[in-house]
């Protein structure tokens, strides 16, 4: 798959095996940045072959997604000859992607960058679209640029070692893409959910391809997120709030899955969504949401405050993306506090009943 971009068109390649790794090792002027946990899991099979002076490990923690870590990568890159011809190859999930994309962008005003997403979330969603984001002090994703990798290799074999928590987080975004594509999408994922949860390779690969194809249309039409791309933020206004309120205990995709329940309930109460569709989506989402809700302060003032902090809020009126008649997406700017309260209470009740 080729993604069109104003900086450069880039290719996403899906690989059945790790055979793409050997040629990367032969590339000159390359620094490999690898998620530390991933390194441990695949040292024998892959990463042990990287010469020590070409290797940089980063622990995939939100507190490491900072400008200091990105500058550490830049500094290490100064040891690599070739300057603007230097290449960064990174392996990991969204955290490693964000740090290395930012570093690749600012070093010498842009160097070659190859990314190998190893979480389901990074592979199905974040690896395309070109966003890089860093946390600053208590602000999540405050700093950022647009800088897509030149090449993306996705090998679904990596997903087998993901924890259930991280795999389900990735499924949150996959379900989102399918629900966004209307009743046919909902039906498709309902019928394949068992295979997805078992991580059956052919099922995972089918949804990987359809998720990327779905996102591709939005990011090509609106590369810099000034228009139609906001639709991809469906459920995110609520999801981001739940992520922050849980102090990132709830991973991104899972928070988005919870956000979808809230968004659908708002639509339902506005009379814009069919109750059967809403229930079907909820039954599906319940299968991938396993979180401890009790560690969070669900005081509604806190919920609304967290929603207001979302980057997509432009003024006092609360903005979010909802599904409306016939499961069509719509940006609304008149979200009311009472609507949020009702929908969040109902989401909590639904998730607490087994
Ligand atoms: N740039 C974007 O467009 C974009 C979009 C969405 C999310 N994000 C960011 O991505 C981050 C979340 O990323 P994520 O969910 O992909 O994962 P992550 O990078 O947070 O990693 C999650 C966990 O999985 C581990 N891991 C990675 N690959 C593994 C594998 N193959 N086997 C076993 N363990 C593995 C990591 O060590 C870590 O413990 C957040 O910081 C979020 O803000 C960025
Ligand atoms: Zn997301």
Give an overview of the whole structure.
- The chain is of the alpha/beta class.
- 45% of the residues lie in helices and 17% in strands.
- The protein is built from 13 helices and eleven strands.
- α3 (67-77) packs across α4 (94-106) and α7 packs across α8 (201-221).
- It is globular, with a radius of gyration of 20 Å.
- Nicotinamide-adenine-dinucleotide binds at residues 35, 37-38, 41, 60, 62, 65, 92-98, 118-119, 121-122, 126, 129, 131-133, 141, 158, 161-162, 166, 169, 251-252.
Topology readout:
Blueprint: E1 2-3, E2 10-14, H1 21-25, E3 30-35, H2 36-42, E4 55-58, H3 67-77, E5 87-92, H4 94-106, E6 112-117, H5 120-126, E7 131-136, E8 139-146, E9 151-154, H6 164-180, H7 183-197, H8 201-221, H9 236-245, H10 252-269, H11 275-286, H12 300-308, E10 318-323, E11 329-335, H13 337-352
Parallel strand pairs: 2-9, 3-4, 3-5, 5-6, 6-9
Antiparallel strand pairs: 1-2, 7-8, 10-11
Helix pairs in contact: 3-4, 5-6, 5-8, 6-7, 6-8, 6-10, 7-8, 7-11, 9-10, 9-12, 10-11, 10-13
The chain binds nicotinamide-adenine-dinucleotide and zinc ion.
Mean pLDDT: 94
Radius of gyration: 20 Å
Question: What's the CATH superfamily of the largest domain, by name?
Answer: Dehydroquinate synthase-like - alpha domain
Q: How many helical stretches?
A: 13
User: Remind me, CATH topology of the largest domain?
Assistant: Dehydroquinate synthase-like, alpha domain
CATH architecture descriptor text of the largest domain:
Up-down Bundle
Bound molecule kinds, no repeats? nicotinamide-adenine-dinucleotide, zinc ion
Shape: globular
CATH class (first level) name of the largest domain: Mainly Alpha
Poorly predicted spans = none
- What share of residues are in beta strands? 15-25%
Overall number of strands: 11
